[in-house]
Structure prediction request, 229 residues.
Amino acid sequence: MADKDILQNVEAAMGKAELMAALSDATRARLAKQGVPCTVEPGKLLFAKGDKGDALYVLLEGEVEVRTSSEAGKDVRLASLKPPALIGEMAVLDGGVRSADICAIRRSRFLRIHRDQALAALESEPKALLKLIAGLSARLRHADAALEDAQLLDLGGRLAQRLLEEAGDGASVTLTQTELARRIGASREKVNRKLHEWADEGWISMGRAGIKLLARDKLSALIREARMT
Prediction:
């Protein structure tokens, strides 16, 4: 059972996640009490590709990375997830093995819900099951688009896209150059050169607080041009 000191936060976080929001308040409250809290430190795995898929996780705090490995053994980043993300939905449907690694980027807290408990909730509320299927379909479409971009975009296009995605509606990116390089599959040296090139153009500025986007339109145009070539 989840600790009493986190139950209040758990139900609130679950209510913000699209799948959990489709469940009734009573069902969410039951799952919150049935769930087991866990914490993963930065750089550690929540689970690895090939592990048994016996649970669903609700990300309450922190950030995780979905990744796999290339044939050469290099880590390949597929996506990053922030609260209130749900992790491991496929295991709820088929109970199969994990299809990717989930690694904590920051110290992350989760609620672990056993597959049997999640299935019981979904079977009792079919609308939530439809939300789960729709969510998995959307994630597959996103993964397909990411693979396409990896093939079509050059380093500048991938870096511009990553900066815009990390900044969201804001203008600041706090990731280090090393982390940016890893997330787009490039060397730090190449990322550093490109960032300084854009700084000279007045598109961005760099400081101790990170990278500030000064010309989002220029970065967006660069991505469009890269896709057309």
Notes: The first strand starts at residue 36 and ends at 40.
